[in-house]
Design goal:
heterodimer; A: 6-stranded mixed sheet; B: mainly alpha; binds adenosine-5'-diphosphate; binds magnesium ion
Chain lengths: ~300, ~240
């Protein structure tokens, strides 16, 4: 794994009951990259983002953050392989193929060994992650479609709650930093308002500031403008554009094709629980290869 | 006894009526506080993420508590408390602590349901937003979720307090059975007086009713004021 890859996922699977939403996502993002994620509604874009910071527990796969393995679960693939080998062994025994029986038995033995080691490793990663989950999440900021500001606190308290509570900064310094961030998004005058007094666009800009206040390594945006009235989309997108320009690493699930085209340096298309296209925006939009993507683009552009 | 005479009897006893009302209110208030604390503990046991075995057991115990308390009559619980706890801990029956504990334990089960409905009324996005910042479940619960739940829950808590005030009258059953009782609840006092002066029995009951009603109306007023203040603060 190269050094500047901040976050990656391998074979990421997620099922809800019997419904498989993610069917093996391979993804990685370098520091400073801005990746737009697009796809039809219900294809699993939110689920993908929520798995990355473990708001959802994946069913299988691996997630690696800043050089650390924060999730790993592959052992059931090996279990399946072993059970297939066992049925092969049965066949071989029936056919009285002594050589095959011997080699299969040996193979199963070594696979079992491997499985045991893997399971132990996964268990210890699980334990470590449980203990350091909050530390991992401090590195991943998230912005939600519905803003999710805390209505029982002023804007300023929304922003400084996490940095102060988690001991990142003392209250005075956190407040100074919060005010500076509020200035960047043009909302310093709202510091002492309650969220209920703000417009949707203002709420979302505050939500972005709240996530930034933890100085995360990477920001996840889940359709940040989808719940906004059209006239407020621009103010949020311009904040995000400024962030991208300043080198913030971002994954942005969006239906704003203009943003994907102009701001992202990679665009990813999810369909059927997999990433089926992953290209720089120029190529992605001008010469899409995947037929479903062609179809999707013809509808949205 | 003429009407005027009855009024005079009650007027002469006003100090003791108010004292017994005071005991009823004291019992209801402390039982409500105790019930609230028990309710919070029960709800935490129910909703904390089941990350280990202990939490699963606690959840089951909390469920058992609520089932038993809500599934048996208050009077039975009170009688058990008096006859078992009173005897084994050597509390005198003059002590208000026994009814407070009995009603507190009972109220806890109901408070738990009230508090839980308040907490589940808060959007799940709030917990997710808090956790995504790296805050712990406990921090988000106490700094974000509970303050919002409180607003939803206050009317129901007041209803519980109001019904507690009225329900303390159940104590009168015991007051009449046990001879060394010196502190009466309001209805208990009215009944005792009724035994002493049967001619004014109705007047005693009527007076007790008026006092209960006055307290309930007062609490309802307080409830309205608090609700209005919550509304002004937000939204
Ligand atoms: N908690 C959940 N329980 C059950 N099904 C879910 C849950 N979350 C999402 N899903 C299902 O997973 C699919 C993908 O959802 P989502 O990731 O929200 O899609 P998108 O964000 O691309 O619109 C949908 O079919 C949705 O119904
Ligand atoms: Mg979504």
């Amino acid at each position: 794994m190269s050094d500047d890859i901040i976050l990656s996922a391998r074979g990421l699977c997620k099922r809800f009951g019997s419904a498989e939403v993610l069917g093996g996502i391979d993804f990685e993002i370098k520091r400073g990259d801005v990746v737009a994620v697009i796809g039809p509604s219900g294809c699993g874009k939110s689920t993908f983002l929520r798995c990355l910071n473990l708001l959802e527990t994946p069913t299988a796969g691996g997630i690696y953050l800043d050089g650390e393995t924060i999730f790993k679960k592959f052992s059931h693939y090996l279990e399946q392989e072993i059970s297939e080998l066992k049925s092969d062994l049965k066949q071989a025994k029936k056919a009285e193929d002594a050589a095959l029986v011997a080699s299969l038995t040996a193979l199963i033995g070594s696979k079992r060994h491997e499985l045991k080691a893997l399971k132990n490793e996964e268990k210890s990663i699980g334990r470590q992650t449980l203990a350091s989950l909050n530390r991992h999440r401090q590195k991943i900021g998230m912005v939600f479609q519905q803003f999710n500001l805390f209505p029982n606190m002023t804007v300023l308290d929304n922003i400084i709650l996490a940095p102060v509570k988690l001991g990142k900064y003392d209250k005075k310094l956190a407040t100074e930093k919060a005010v500076a961030l509020l200035k960047q998004v043009g909302l310093e005058s709202k510091a002492h308002e309650y969220p209920s007094r703000l417009s949707g666009g203002q709420k979302q800009r505050i939500a972005i500031v709240r996530a930034l206040a933890m100085e995360p390594e990477i920001m996840l945006f889940d359709e940040p403008t989808s719940a906004l009235d059209p006239e407020m989309v621009g103010e949020v997108l311009s904040v995000m554009t400024a962030l991208a320009k300043s080198g913030t690493t971002m994954i942005v699930v969006t239906h704003e094709m203009g943003f994907a085209q102009q701001v992202a340096n990679r665009v990813v298309f999810i369909d059927g629980g997999k990433i089926v296209e992953d290209a720089p925006p120029a190529e992605f939009f001008s010469s899409p290869k995947n037929p479903r993507l062609k179809d999707f683009l013809s509808k949205v552009l | 006894m003429t009407f005027i005479e009855q009024i005079k009897v009650i007027w002469d006893l006003r100090g003791l009526f108010f004292e017994s009302l005071g005991f009823s209110l004291l019992i209801a208030l402390f039982a409500a506080l105790m019930g609230f604390v028990i309710g919070v503990v029960l709800v935490m046991a129910k909703i904390v993420p089941k990350t280990n075995f202990v939490f699963v057991i606690l959840d089951k115990l909390a469920g058992f508590y609520v089932t038993v308390i809500r599934g048996t009559p208050m009077l039975v619980q009170l009688l058990i408390m008096y006859s078992v706890v009173l005897v084994s801990f050597k509390f005198s029956s003059t002590n208000l602590i026994v009814p407070i504990i009995a009603f507190g334990i009972n109220s806890g089960a109901y408070m738990a349901e009230i508090i839980r409905s308040g907490i589940t009324s808060v959007d799940v996005g709030q917990m997710e937003a808090g956790r995504s910042l790296g805050l712990s479940w406990t921090t988000v619960m106490f700094r974000v979720i509970i303050p919002q739940a409180v607003k939803v829950v206050v009317p129901a808590i007041f209803n519980e307090l109001i019904s507690l005030v009225k329900e303390t009258s159940v104590i009168s059953v015991i007051v009449l059975r046990v001879n060394d009782v010196q502190k009466y609840d309001l209805l208990g006092y009215a009944q005792r007086m009724g035994l002493a002066k049967p001619a004014a029995y109705f007047a005693f009951l009527f007076t007790a009713s008026l006092l209960y009603l006055a307290v309930v109306l007062l609490l309802t007023l307080v409830q309205k004021i608090i609700e209005r203040r919550f509304k002004k603060n937000e939204r």
